[in-house]
User: What shape does this take?
Amino acid sequence: MDDEIAELFYVLIRHCINQPAPDALPETEQHKLTATVYVLIGEYKNNFPPEAVIRQARKVFGNLQAVEIIPGVGHGMTTERPDVINVYLRNFLEATV
Assistant: This one.
């Protein structure tokens, strides 16, 4: 990792540590979301099994367009395999925009 990226991560982490996490949107409100929902979850996401996430997403998001389990990645999928994630996102956006 070069110095510029390391500095960016440092600033980002310092900012996040000092900010309280937002409250989760209650399930009773989730159905009101109007944006298109696309769920990507890593195959190795240990604390949230992909199948459980998919079941919950189908239950609460009426505008769920697609769900993908990304093979070979975990929580940090965008840093583990940005090339793969970009392909998924590009394909989804091209199909929906």
Summary: The beta strands are 37-42, 64-70. The longest helix spans residues 3-17.
